[in-house]
């Protein structure tokens, strides 16, 4: 067995069909789409197809915008900075409401906006590990709240937030709602009209597209001041020459993700559950969050007596790639904020291991991963003093 | 920031071969039982340090020969990352054959050095230095167990930065001697705060008894107080003197600097009166001897006297002839 990749929440393999679709745009169809000559215009049909696929993938309307960005981090920055520029800076509103478990692309941008005078409210999660409508209801007010930004699904736990309910609550009160949906697109149905969101961020490399390209949905009529000022690309909402190859790749990746949603819900979930059952069969293993409200590909487990970095080191040696939020494995020694906010188990900050599958994960890979996990746990527990007690 | 910082996720690449090797195949992992110790004619010492909830825990087993106080064997068990495992293993290797007192002289810095592949290249990245501190702590804990004393009594100095083992005294001294005003300067001079950064300010990876920011603030405050006291002890400024003291000060300067010059030419002067108006002090003088009626006495000499008094005492002094 070659190496087994179970870190798909970090990034995914590019679908070979996506790679093939991008191929003509390096050396043949390389024109700048903003040029008037044939080199420029001949790429337009491919771009139209790509946009059609992106719009269809999230059910955006013809009058909405799906702006192509470099990644979800850029999309998140564009939304938060624009809201600050138009509503907070002007004194019209004061606050941005978000959660304690956002990805740094949102949380660190919020910290930056705090330095520019924004009041940011970081909502805690409930016993299920998600933000519920009640706490949001108590934390927002049309006079004060400029924006609510809440992730669709959490990157560490896979827990899915009740975005439909949260967004409609904001819509009722006339408050802008943004969701970072990087961990949701391709894993669960994402429909921007069913859930009344104003902004939605996604990133191609989380659903088998290329790295370095993402999208930002902006509902019709909602103001967005560009983050990147420049040329007329994206109708002036995002300057910078369009990377046509990446746009085409992302478009196809979105279509394939939508087509595979059913497979994701059925097969990926089945394999995930197999791995999860095997983990849960080991003494002292706790899996975070109920299966039913998680993305079908994610497991966050705490393995008693086994430090996270040592665990992924041992797994890596056996060819299995997983991830840990352990403080010991981060550049800063800071424990993962999701773990801290969840407070489920104070050991989780040191023992949390995340396995994330994709539609490319095979049965044989799960078998190999189960064997590797058992071997690693057994070795590391034999080292651990708690097992000696 | 630099070119080398632009690629992330290099944590494991920064481990030396020795660290990798010892994490995978620790030589001294395991337990020493009472029976093992007895066979060696040694006393068994078991010491626990850390806790799993804090992210690292180690249990050390020592077999110590009681007459020589020599550590005949050392083993460990640990809950921790690769660095914790590798440094615990190296720590055991380094203390075997040493007396308990000799073992206590080994620090995490020595352990890190022993794990290097090349002398000039660190065995672990800076933020992981923290994870090697446990290996040092458990030596102190085991030594305290063996000696039957409290662990704190073994610490001669209060250590502020455990990663770089920098004491409170060193940090205070370096601030004073070099007149440091920022934490970055302290780190530059001592390496304190260069590794896991917990000791810089509250809110880091671990809470600490003291933080560099607070030490800096308190030493700076002490230095300010001392400066204020020194200024208070120095003679008060001319402006704050009463008229009699002002007159005395003026006479001292005249005697030392002015009159000798006038006397050489057979002249002299006396202070007739002094008046204080706002910031200015007016000194009224009358010439005698050769100065009396000298044409320059009203111009050059007068300004020469005034300049001297201004320079020595106060720029607000005006000298006027009567």
Overall description:
The complex is a heterodimer of chains A (about 400) and B (about 325). With about 400 residues, chain A is α/β, with parallel strands linked by helices. Chain A folds into two domains: about 240 residues, Type I PLP-dependent aspartate aminotransferase-like (Major domain) (Aspartate Aminotransferase, domain 2), CATH 3.40.640; about 130 residues, Aspartate Aminotransferase, domain 1. In chain A, helix 1 runs antiparallel to helix 9, helix 4 packs parallel to helix 9 and helix 10 runs parallel beside helix 14. Chain A is globular. Chain A starts with a strand and ends in a 6-residue tail after the last helix. With about 325 residues, chain B is of the alpha+beta class. Chain B folds into three domains: about 140 residues, Sufe protein. Chain: A (Alpha-Beta Complex); about 80 residues, no CATH class; about 80 residues, GMP Synthetase, Chain A, domain 3, CATH 3.30.300.130. Helices cover about 40% and strands about 20% of the residues of chain B. Chain B is built from eleven helices and eight strands. A three-stranded antiparallel sheet of chain B has the order 1-2-3. In chain B, strands 6-7-8 form a three-stranded mixed sheet, covered by helices on one side. In chain B, helix 11 links the parallel strand 7 and strand 8. In chain B, helix 5 packs across helix 6. Chain B is elongated and about 110 Å long. The termini of chain B are far apart. At the A-B interface, helix 11 and helix 13 of A face strand 2, strand 3 and helix 3 of B.
Descriptive labels:
heterodimer; A: 389 residues; alpha/beta; Aspartate Aminotransferase, domain 1; seven-stranded mixed beta sheet; four-stranded antiparallel beta sheet; B: 322 residues; alpha+beta; Sufe protein. Chain: A; GMP Synthetase, Chain A, domain 3; 19% strand; elongated
